[in-house]
Amino acid sequence: MIDTLTEVLIVGAGIGGLTAALSLHHAGIRCALVDRVNELAPLGVGINLQPHAVRELTELGLGDDLEAIGVATAELIHYDRHGNRIWGEPRGLAAGYRWPQYSVHRGELQMVLLRAVRERLGPDAVTTGTVLEGLQEDESADVVVATLRDRATGEVRREPANVVIGADGLYSAVRAHLHPTEGPPVRSGIRMWRGTARRAPFLTGRSMIMAGCNSVAKFVAYPISPTVDGAVTVNWVAEVSTPEDARPADWNAAGRSTRSSRTTRTGTSAGWTCRG
């Protein structure tokens, strides 16, 4: 993957890692990425890009791409559990920012970033199916040596870099190397069920709604796609306070429908939120 010393090796080709690579490339710094999955795919559900994040991506030349895949959120409205409006506030451009707030599908955003990385850094800039197994600092050469294993062949190689960036998610191998006694992520006490649905636009078509509160239960919904044939993709999140739940963090746990009592999967249903 790396013929000569890499200035920056990024572990993880998610949204954070890919954006870091584009920013480094824009600054003239050579970098490469590795990711443990065998194939990067447009997984996930909805996320929100606040104006300060949209500014960075726009300055990287991705403004038109964001407009094409997302919705420029115009307002946030909070309701009580009976559906009565409590308050509302403008968002993004409507709130006076110079850049929009975009609601997008996480996987589609990742694919936009991946295409840009491969176009600008080269088709081999991202190596998948590669696990980070260790890091060793070589102070005499002023480099960090990453031990990487190919998941398909088992081949182990050592890759030197001036800097290693950990962008490898909740169970980060880089973070585990830096903080080996830290322990697992600390849960927030909130369990989340997430999914998407196709339906007609509601309210302004660029509205985000919330009902309830995190102390007991909360529901959030907002569109994450342009309108096609009179319908949009709506992201929904149901959050319930479960302080007694001690199961480990899992972003892909199966949910259970109480109506039919059958197990279903809500996309990448995020069973947990974590802090720390």
How would you describe what is shown here?
By secondary structure, the chain is α+β, with helices and mostly antiparallel strands. The protein folds into two domains: about 5-45 and about 110-180, FAD/NAD(P)-binding domain; about 185-275, D-Amino Acid Oxidase, Chain A, domain 2 (2-Layer Sandwich). It has five helices and 19 strands. The chain has a six-stranded mixed β-sheet. Strands 6-5-14-15-16-13 form a six-stranded mixed β-sheet, with no helix packed on it. Strand 5 (about 75-80) and strand 6 (about 85-90) form a beta hairpin.
What is this structure, in a nutshell?
The protein is built from 5 helices and 19 strands.
CATH architecture of the largest domain: 3-Layer(bba) Sandwich
Helicity, as a percent range = 10-25%
Q: Into which percentage range does the β-strand content fall? A: 35-45%
User: How is the CATH topology of the largest domain named?
Assistant: FAD/NAD(P)-binding domain
Structurally, the number of domains stands at 2
Please identify the top-level CATH class of the largest domain. Alpha Beta
- Low-pLDDT segments: 260-276
- How are the strands of the largest sheet arranged? 8-2-1-11-10-9
